[in-house]
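hiii so my PI (J.) wants the whole complex modelled not just the main chain, which honestly fair. so below is everything: three entries, each one labled with what it is. i double checked the lines twice but i was tired so who knows lol
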Amino acid sequence: MAYVAPGETSLVPPAEVAEVDLYHAKSWITKYVFSQDAKVIAIQYAFTAIAIGLVALVLSWLMRLQLGFPDTFSIIEPSQYYQFITMHGMIMVIYLLTALFLGGFGNYLIPLMVGARDMVFPFVNMVSYWVYLLAVLVLIASFFVPGGPTGAGWTLYPPQSITAGTPGSEGGIVLMLVSLALFIVGFTMGGLNYVVTVLQARTRGMSLMRMPLTVWGIFIATILALLAFPALFVGAVMMTLDKLLGTSFFMPAMISLGEQLEYDGGNPLLFQHLFWFFGHPEVYIVALPAFGIVSDLISVHARRNIFGYRMMVWALVAIGALSFIVWAHHMYVSGMNPWFGFFFATTTLIIAIPTALKVYNWTLTLWKGNIQLTVPMLFAIGFIVTFLNGGITGLFLGNVVVDVPLSDTMFVVAHFHMVMGVAPLMVIFGAIYHWYPLITGRMYDEALGQIHFWVTFVGAYTIFLPIHYLGFLGVPRRYFEMGDTSFIPESAATLNAFVTVVALIVGFAQLVFFYNMARSYTKGKIAGRNPWKANSLEWQTEEFPPGHGNFGATLPLVYRWPYSYGVPGVAEDYLPQNVPPDEVVTDEGPGASGA
Amino acid sequence: MGFLAHLTEKPWLEGESQGVDTDGGGIFSLPTPQIGLRVFLIVATVLFTLFIVAYTDRMVVADWRPMPEPWLLWVNTALLIASSVALHGAWVGADRGRIDDVRAGLYAAGVFAFAFLAGQILAWQQLVAMGYFAASNPANAFFYLFTALHALHLLGGLVAWGRTTAKVRRGLAPGQVHLSVELCAIYWHFLLVVWLVLFGLLLLT
Amino acid sequence: MVVVYALILVAVGTVAFHIFSPWWSTEIASNWGYIDTTIDITFWVTGVVFIAVMLFMAYCVWRYRYKAGRRAAYEPENTKMELWLTGLTTVGVIVMLTPGLFVWNDFVTVPEGAAEFEVMGQQWQWSYRFPGKDGVLGTTDVRKISDENPFGLNPDDPNGKDDVLVEGDELHLPLDQPVKVLLRSIDVLHDFYVPEFRAKMDLVPGQVTYFWFTPIRTGTFDILCFELCGVGHHTMRGKVVIEEESAYKAWLEKQPTFAKSMAKAGTGGGDGLKLVSSGGEAVTAGGESAR
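here's the output for the full assembly
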């Protein structure tokens, strides 16, 4: 790798990825349906993920109605309640968050931000989406088979997930496992693209350390996903065989509702280890893209360079690596060898250090900034608050002995909803508002965006903060109803009713968001190019919004990192990555060197 | 410059010590499809490793009854080795620009690979005929699982092999099929190693 | 400015909610007070960080709100500050983790002289077994479970003859006596938890898990299943009565032993139920039946 001094940049040949290498759509079908353009695939991923996510939202309302008003909604039966919680969790974690962050934002932003025309394997990328869609359809089909979808909890622990006594243990669980396997196959195809595009398709001058943190976050998350999803795949395949062929990988000798089953010798804990070897990195598969995106939102809208860029990158890498040796903190009271607790508690609390540094650096980016409280910035601040809160409660659950009373209580529910439900959603909303002008060429409605933020942020915090305290009290999660329990006061029922009402309000408030998006698409103010005065390459395309091939005749040449906000001596408070040094307008006038 | 060395760059120091990175994209000097294949091989390695971990975990339980390895498996192993060697020959042929070598290597590799798959199915039939069902013991279950999974990977490879062979039949020059042949050969070698590890594991336990 | 107030309100409101919340841990009834102490330490450390970050953020949003023409400070990084922050965070982590690990060491180390008894879980009820006069629990096997031998005790094991079986009744335990709870499930995963004891552990079919505690106050407490175990999960309840040694002994006397219950059933027991194929016709539990 050769470096040349800035004066010699004329020697650098223009980026040589020629237009001819690109796949050209020949018809409407290949342009918008079976498209190989990462931007179209991104939109397809996003729409599918959000659509199935809305199903999960409705499921959460149904379970909240049962929890808030246990005697009123007698139409909800226990088996249905357990199906609701299972499908809600599985959809939200895998089919919404993972798919939206990596398939949606990853596809849209990686090529644009690193200065590539498209993903490196566009055909594989297209197949990835269609396999994902198939996985979603199989998942939906499980609602319509006899017995309904599985009600084993999103963790699908055997033996109960495949034995009678659990709803959906006949057809539902099989379709669930098939759908997961399909999702993993589809994701692997997309993931190969994201990783190799970042490694190989960056434009000239875009060294790794000049990539926006958004790309870093998605890049590391994709590596985690590629290495972690096989564990879920292994678990799913072996459980399917246990269910369909009667093998005993996970199934011990047992009785089911009074009858001896033929299983023998299997180890249910093996599944839990496999599940969480996937499941804990999964948390970071959702969190790291959010970390990356929120860093860019804060930097752009605070008009200040991200504080401690290198530390932010190292923290992403460190968190990613550590996330593979903390999985059993989900299993402190699972009956595994209790001596593992020492190791996993230590690694878990160590992972808090790089995570805390990221939080500090976000707030330090606000410090000495010039903060514009736009809607994306509001959501970024909302993310910091909810992530801080949820991260802190993670320290309770990670510290093995504190986890003993709290595990499987509502505290856990509140913790993970705050940290990997609300916090990533804040980032998703912020990111959609931020990049809406890039995608559509129009601005969203500011007032509606503000209303959406305040209802969602205040509402979500109000929902989940008190639920932690039900956990301290000892209210278990995954309970259809508490009935008569001596230690639970009457007031807990009142609280549950209150939380349900707020949850419904917050849920319906999302209509404001959808209305805003739909209306602004045709009625919104024309955004003009680079409305946020951002530095990264996606805003510097010739065509706006970026068209086929992303960039014009030649790919952009990158001269600096994407965080040159408020650089002393430069006339504007931003300096895009692709402005050549000799064209930088300084305080003294155009062309003078310096920045 | 190694991957880690990149991570200590100070990206804001434009124009002072760093200048423009003329290298653009590639961290690695390999063609992009090569990188893609290698990333996929890492994922596949993780997958097989996790199965092996599950195998060793389950093995220690008392109900484990090792199953006999049919002699046919030795034949199949030889077939897979032959297939790998043939593809390697095709690769070398492409290097030297000899399209006849490429064609012969690809055909032989395909024949051996399909023979291997047929052999695996025969081995399954033998075992089933002897009464070793998947449900009767975890050792059997793992055997069927491993072989099926390996065969599926090989089938996927045969799709790539078919596309490459079609290219050669259409009369493309060695230089134009070189990359495809090389990718097939690497993948074949990988699957051979996986098979040897799995077969070794089955033999040892 | 709304954001500044909101951030301050969230910080102050969260603390206020913590202080005034009527929902808090139940009064402890076991020796695991140290767990509560560790929770308190964690609250102090994380609470300070939470308030500091929130207020700092509120300050930044107020002090550095947008003004046309103002420039942000261009400061790519500040290694010294980051090292300090790393160091302080590490100290915080050590303060929380160290006591946690010491208490965990206690938790996994069962003291000499702890009395053993067994909790058996099944969909969806609890049963208990105490060693008889010999102080040793007999061996069990899921395959030996039948209507006459619901615990699956091995009829050939002499240690099991005098085992005391408690089925469909409250669990009684003596005050101030350390107990090692052996946990066994005959079907799916369960978890034995009494919130007042603070200690819980999963029941895993195919193996025996354990935890220990010492009851320190008398009373009757709820036992709940804390690991999703099917449609009847929320109905899997029980009660545990902590009482003086003498009352406990009297209660135990009245419970049947294995030998007695077998004699009553009039068989040697232990042939097991008929086998059904795992994929075969199993009854799907309807919602109503579990209610």
